[in-house]
## 1
Amino acid sequence: MKTTSDLKEKILELKKRKNAVILAHYYQEEAIQEIADFVGDSLELSRKASQVDADIIVFAGVYFMAETAKIVNPNKKVIVPDVKAGCSLADSCQPEDFKTFLAQYPNHTVVTYINCSAEIKTLTDIVCTSSNAKKIIASIPENKLIIFAPDKNLGKYLIAETGREMVLWEGSCIVHEAFSLEKLIDLYKKHPTATIIAHPESETHILKVAHYIGSTSGMLNHVKNSTNDTFIVATEAGILHQMQLDNPTKTLIPAPSKENNTCACSECAFMKVNTLEKLYNCLKKEQPEVKIDTSVIEKALVPIQKMLSIN
Ligand code: 13P
Ligand code: SF4
């Protein structure tokens, strides 16, 4: 069995020889974040993917993110450590069901969160991420009706923030719905000076008590720029690695989950399917490769490019 440092060395050597770049989400395990050329949130990763000049993109995240990288780079090889790194939120919105749903609401502008499949993106007018969702909604003329999918929690947050009416798809993320309000309040009572920060995929009752709501990078920046020294963090636990590196003296407490205390509910099991060993194997064999029909790429690129142009 290879050690972590053996694997890292071999990955670096293969990466150089094959002119590959490794893009990773902040929810990846620490060793993957450490070896990556670029670590970011969904928006930063899609922006970065549209700018790389390597021949191969190794995408360490979940599948919809790797698909986005392929859509913006149809001529590059995009490979992933494990094709089973899915997303409960993306899976909650299947194309045939979504088409039936859309047919009920003609003349609506369809905004989809980037956490959806390439096929759902072909049925979309404009894509958004948690970093730019308010900006994307603000770019839609006031007289236009809006459908927002697939995350109902982010959708409800956007309705409250923007004052716009939206028809919501009933999807959600199992990780961000795992937090317990009751336990969070108890924890806060023990740390009354803490700042509660939350991702907008969390449920409304969690967002109501949060002092700051933002995307993965939004939360990282908030903690870095804040003068406070204690934070209760309601999002996927992988973010804590970078947050602690950025703020070695600050106290970061993961928000408690509804299940018993031994459960790793705030870890995204899909993200954690990727390992350093799988990353090494995928770079060595140049597979599994992300393959998408050209017609899907062409259609899905339009709402992604619209989003990127707004940023
Ligand atoms: P962001 O990277 O946009 O914060 O999204 C979090 C997430 O759930 C990714 O799947
Ligand atoms: Fe999907 Fe939730 Fe995991 Fe993000 S954290 S990849 S939304 S299941």
## 2
Amino acid sequence: RVPWVDDNGNVQVNRGFRVQFNNAIGPYKGGLRFHPSVNLSIIKFLGFEQIFKNSLTGLPIGGGKGGSDFNPKGKSDNEIMRFCQSFMTELCRHIGPNLDVPAGDIGVGAREIGYLFGQYKRLRNSYDAGVLTGKGLAYGGSLARKEATGFGVIYFVNEMLNYHGQSFENKRVVISGSGNVAIYAAEKAIDYGAKVVAMCDSSGYIVDENGIDLSIVKQIKEVERNRIKEYIARKEGAQYFEGQKGIWTVKCDIALPCATQNDINLDDAKILVENGTTVIGEGANMPCTNEAVKYFLEKGLLVAPAKAANAGGVATSALEMTQNSMRLSWSFEEVDEKLQGIMVNICHNMVDAAERYGFKGNYVVGANIAGFEKVVDAMQAQGIV
Ligand code: NDP
């Protein structure tokens, strides 16, 4: 129960969650999501996925997830701060640098992590930098953490493409979302020579046949915290369409769902295949329904599953924890290089696991097996506890 007082002096009460799923290979680790749709079921599926994703990174982190049905949209900075302080007043009993280390997710970025960290420090009377990740650079955050999930998605998909003699060069890319993961996936895809033609938020989508200008998207989303619709007033030739779903009708070679779960259902999948899409890279957690994934695999598309493709965020969080323990900061290039190595490694381990178990080319199964093996080994080694 998270009670807080809004700017009009009214008492508001939200529900908060933290699911600690598995700590066989390290402290529980996973983000916090603030979104009105949050409930225990969503946090549990995210926590379950997180166990295997964290294992895939090769780093010593267990699986957990948390959040609240609090809606940050339209709230003032002071309301956000009061909510975060109340949330942490409850959560602080259950977390710690060697116990459970939350991070950001939908609706939780550097601003929220800052308020959460401040309240933890105040309540515990101790500077435990490693209790949260995604911190600001001034107080223990890691360079490249902000970019890590999106960049990681592209490093991963690029490695998969290389396996099949392809690359991002001159590919048309559609990316759902315009939040943290979507923006930095777009940035790296453009770096690699792709053209990003469509992005969205929960209200609608933009199409820019000349290639989306990310500096405008960053200004709208990261600075102004405004709607994606604003883009068309600032870029000639761009179009806006109401409703986020239509984004999957935009023709593309590579689709990167980076918004939220169940974004691509079987109907969307059929449209994508019909329009000639050959690669799906899951930036969000479980953005394709099971039916959609099955259909893509039947039709021979390359599918980069979320627990592998978006593992770069949590991997870099673990690198942030390492820097906090060592009390030093690595350069952007150093972190980015480690991130690239981790994503390439995940790709190889996943391909190897798929082949060992007779599922050659099925990266969805490969990622599940590769993530599971290490967790089960650790659990068995530790006995009945
Ligand atoms: P943000 O809050 O930064 O962005 C979410 C984006 O998705 C926004 O543009 C949002 O639009 C859009 N969106 C569209 N429909 C919905 C919906 N129904 N519910 C929520 N958002 C919606 O979140 P992130 O970019 O951090 O996260 C995106 C996805 O990536 C999530 O699935 C998350 O779990 C996953 N992920 C994130 C990691 C990270 O490091 N941040 C790490 C690994 C996975 P609007 O602004 O209109 O709400």
## 3
Amino acid sequence: MIKTELLKIGDLEGDLEKIKRAASLIRQGQVVAFPTETVYGLGANALDPGAVDKIFKAKGRPADNPLIVHIDNIDSWSMLVETIPDQALDLAEAFWPGPLTIILKKKDLVSDKVTAGLDTVAVRMPSHPVARKLIELSACPIAAPSANLSGKPSPTKALHVMEDMQGRIPMILDGGDANVGLESTVLDLTFDLPIILRPGGVTREMLELVLGEVLLDPSVFSSLEEGQKPRSPGSKYKHYAPKAQVTIYKGRQDRLIAGISKEAQRLIQAGQRVGILTTDENKASYKDGIIRSMGSRQRPEDLARVLFSLLREFDDLGVDHILAEGVDTKNEGLAVMNRLARAAGFSIVDL
Ligand code: AMP
Ligand code: MG
């Protein structure tokens, strides 16, 4: 077992020595967890296949699920990809640094370990100051998936990372709670039209303002048929799932509340521990079960910020079944419903 150090980064200048230590681990081919604005990442030198291997081992991640490479300047991007089309530059101008990952054809320099053998590479420039400083001081692009054990909800707090990674990696940088709370938007630019492979904090609406029409990959809202090859390899795995069984309920608010309340009563009578994932508008209407609100339906970005943390909390409370309210798929609501649908294994009830 490796000893895992947890280092709190209060302010960037005062705690620079700690980030330098993390960077030196990265340069030595080690794995370090660090905060980003989306979720916590598990980083290693993207140009060192041995180091990248350690990420897969620490997470228990299947080798055919590629990683996102994190950079802190546009020059590093040109090192990694064949060409950067104007569309991509426009996106970088509009949304970087920030929660947008762009997929382009890769250069040979990028190892097959990072891209899981694909001829494309996913790149993002994060905005979190600790992430940026870590990349700068490491002086290499950093490959980083979310810092959870494979299949668990992504970590939005250093404590979540500690729960999953203690004994598996040498260091965790604690930069506070993630502000977006869901993983980045993944956009593939290698087809005729841009395709969202995974919705996130940069919404479809925001992308369309820059690009015109943007497609949504079918894997966003359905599980794949047997034998089907996904564009985004990650989408074939059960993701973001708490231990509890999750069911989503969609429909008019009054029907939602009645349907969920009835099901909660039934499950509780059958001896199950029930969690209700609701919204501020409806939370006072429930009586039974462990009730947690994600925030107001008027502010989908608030729902995104706390979703994963609440799923982990339900696990900590020993909940067997989570009954979740569906939300509108406009703006950040699309990413919220995508993660909920995956956590639920696409078990969605229309009321
Ligand atoms: P995570 O690192 O856990 O946030 O997951 C990264 C996501 O990006 C996964 O769903 C991957 O399948 C997807 N991804 C990374 N690189 C590529 C790529 N080159 N082509 C398609 N999807 C990718
Ligand atoms: Mg992940």
## 4
Amino acid sequence: MDSQMKTIYDSVIARDPNQPEFHQAVEEVLDSLSPVIQEHPEFLPVVESMVEAERIIQFRVPWFDDSGQLHVNRGFRVQMNGAIGPYKGGLRFHPSVNQSIMKFLAFEQVFKNSLTGLPMGGGKGGSDFNPKGKTDAEVLRFCQSFMMELWRHIGADLDVPAGDIGVGGREVGYLFGMYKKLANEFTGVLTGKGRSYGGSLIRPEATGYGLVYFAREMLATKGKSFEGSTVAISGSGNVAQFACEKVLDLGGVPVTMSDSGGWIYDPAGIDRDKLAWIMDLKNNRRGRISEYADNFDGVTYSKSEPEPSLNGLWDHDVDVALPCATQNEINGKEAQMLVKNGVIAVAEGANMPCTPEAVEVFLENGILFAPGKASNAGGVATSGLEMSQNSLRLSWTRDEVDQRLESIMVEIHKTASETAERYGMPGNYVAGANIAGFLKVAEAMTAQGMI
Ligand code: NDP
Ligand code: 2IT
């Protein structure tokens, strides 16, 4: 990082010293921007401004459990940057949620949304509520209480939330119902809605499918494909499930999946029937991935080790790795395991699943590496398509949305590659994505008077 960027980075740390995830996300972007600032010194103030959120809303979320006991959670919405469109980004319900995690996710979202080519600013929100073990009625009451405050800060032309960890179709439905009641209008204020009330076909599949479309483009640059390739996937939620499905469509062999308890390794491959079983386990029965090993032969299950122990999920002979669970799930040592085992490509389905050390290991070893802001952008891109359909009061066919998603992912791959090349870092998707995402927002902020 050059001295100008270091000054900005130091001021970010001095302002909010207890936000390590936000620092990490900012550092990765600042690391990439020096060549742009050399060419466009007028954009330096833009960088200074972008690291400060336009607005952060934090609120109390009181709710009663089934036994009538009161619980109080904390809710957030970070409206990071609205220069190129309404704030857009998911809601995360997970006990780890705090302002640092919300800001890192909102910051990443600004660049990601810019890369999609669609007019969306960046935002993120959520709560430290833990949906695990809660009844449907408890989740409903929580969502209603959460929306009781959030509704006044969002709107179809202002800020459009969606899902993320712990927020799927069920939660989006409950949130949407409460918004509609409070605002007294039916509008596309959330994406990831159910089909019957304005949701887009392919939005559930979009992040996972988009990830695999992106990884397919990366592999093609080396004359490789998914056909016959073994693939390590982490997570077993929305992104992981549909990444697995698309890998199967393209002839690949997924061999791992995980949840917060541990991971399974299935050397015979997770085929379509097994994936359907996992989808039922996770989406309907809300069970644990360990049950997979009890149900299918030849499978090993290993519990996750607490830090700093290595997570053996990444210690298998695979061609492609798709981390799809959460931030910082591949550290430098795990990256070295993947390299040692001959991995060709690593594409992030989750947001920031690879630590800076891991990214360095991949880049130093010439491994194709895609940062989440490029490779997982298919989810928010399809949210953008849902917004368009809602505005048009139309709904497109499955094929139409899938084709648009695929062409957006191909375009993001092309933009990231060409930008990296243009700035003298061929093959570096991290630099390419950061620079290309930045330039559009920087131009818009400058044109609008830097407000
Ligand atoms: P889900 O809640 O559907 O699934 C999350 C999965 O990751 C679960 O298997 C979960 O296990 C596991 N997981 C979550 N937190 C941890 C943790 N701290 N340690 C270990 N495992 C963990 O979420 P999504 O699939 O939607 O999101 C996964 C990632 O993808 C996130 O980083 C999210 O930000 C990112 N993303 C999501 C998009 C979307 O459209 N949904 C779009 C772009 C990125 P368990 O069930 O045990 O908690
Ligand atoms: O991280 C992400 O891009 C998401 N969770 C999806 C956001 C969205 O608005 O669809």
